[in-house]
Amino acid sequence: MSSLSGLRVLDLSRVLAGPWCAQTLADLGADVIKVERPGSGDDTRAWGPPWREMSSGQDRDSAYFLSANRNKKSVAIDISSKEGAELVRKLAARSDVLVENFKVGALQRYGLSYEDLKQINPALVYCSITGFGQQGPYANRAGYDFLIQGMGGLMSITGTPDGKPGAGPQKVGVALTDILTGMYAATGILAAVMESRATGQGQHIDVSLLDVQIASLANQAMNYLVGGQAPQRLGNAHPNIVPYQDFRTLDGYIILAIGNDAQFKRFCQVVDRPEWADDARYVTNSARIQHRTALIDAIANVICDQTTAYWIAVMEAAGVPCGPINTIEDVFADPHVAQRQARFTISSKNRGDVPSVANPLKFSESPIEYRLAPPALGQDSYQVLFDELGMKPDDIEDLVHRKIVACAAVAHEPRI
Description:
Blueprint: E1 8-11, H1 17-27, E2 31-36, E3 51-53, E4 60-62, H2 63-66, E5 72-77, H3 82-93, E6 97-100, H4 114-117, E7 125-130, H5 145-151, E8 159-160, E9 168-169, H6 176-199, E10 203-208, H7 209-215, H8 218-227, E11 244-248, E12 253-257, H9 261-270, H10 285-290, H11 292-303, H12 308-318, E13 322-323, H13 328-333, H14 335-339, E14 343-348, E15 352-357, H15 381-387, H16 393-401, E16 405-406
Parallel strand pairs: 1-2, 1-6, 2-5, 6-7, 7-10
Antiparallel strand pairs: 3-4, 5-16, 8-9, 11-12, 12-13, 14-15
Helix pairs in contact: 1-6, 6-7
């Protein structure tokens, strides 16, 4: 049995941070119902190419949507209608957790705020994910990962330093703030569920992208708070460790990740520069930081004489941390990655074999189960309304006819 088997999650979120949170809970075994807009659904369904075609050829979804929505059921409900909002309230009354990322106050107009729903389900854990939080001068602003990477300081420490070719701030190549926010939200939800099950009292969790981005500055934030100087862009170099960056080889690049003085001594032997290990400028990490430029230039002049494969072989043999800079294609071709089963497919009757990237958590007793491929829009509307709310087929058909509920073409009549 999965770790969160029996936990019921209502996912009213879209795009990435909220869906990533709900997918994390779903991977751990939670029963997640994703509520989407009829007609269009989650915004990311249209964020392509690339597209994944359904085996029936009747529909397609973007790779982006597929990345964050496995192990979920999709119910398409127009929550702006009185009847649609009431359906969501009924589902919330039967849920342990609700995840939403609407603008601050937006769900209140439909009677779906935390204050509304705790009246019918006091034990409900209600997680709101926004760009800037529920209070503060920026609370009403829309939040986007790229914007938050800039406002939250991450871009100020990412990119080539001023004065060098290609200088300037850079965002991370994936929406990392969204991902981290989803993970923080999932962690907070699990803590609140424990509290709720012990006391019967749910609570409202306020998670903002900006707060998460600032918290995730980690050592760089503390470098500023302790040292009093704002960290600057160092390209691929590390502010607190030297050498810890990429170097050009004869045919590409290699990363050196030398984390202590003993590793540095072994490195000096490998590159046939034993005198560096006794040089007062380089003998300790603190000294290497002070003389960073001279040491990095010296290393670069040595590393460029051999291939990446050569350096990796000799350094790994000597216990010097190093590695290549892989393309994503290289990553999935790596034999270690293949053995760790990072790539797999989920079989779906209506969508064929859908490729996916594995959850990185590996449990000895309650392993992750990939039960459901990312759903078609409204794929489970009939079944959820029938099974969860006990609605009659004729009543469901009436809601569909009035466009309050939508059902995917692949959906079947409910099992009676």
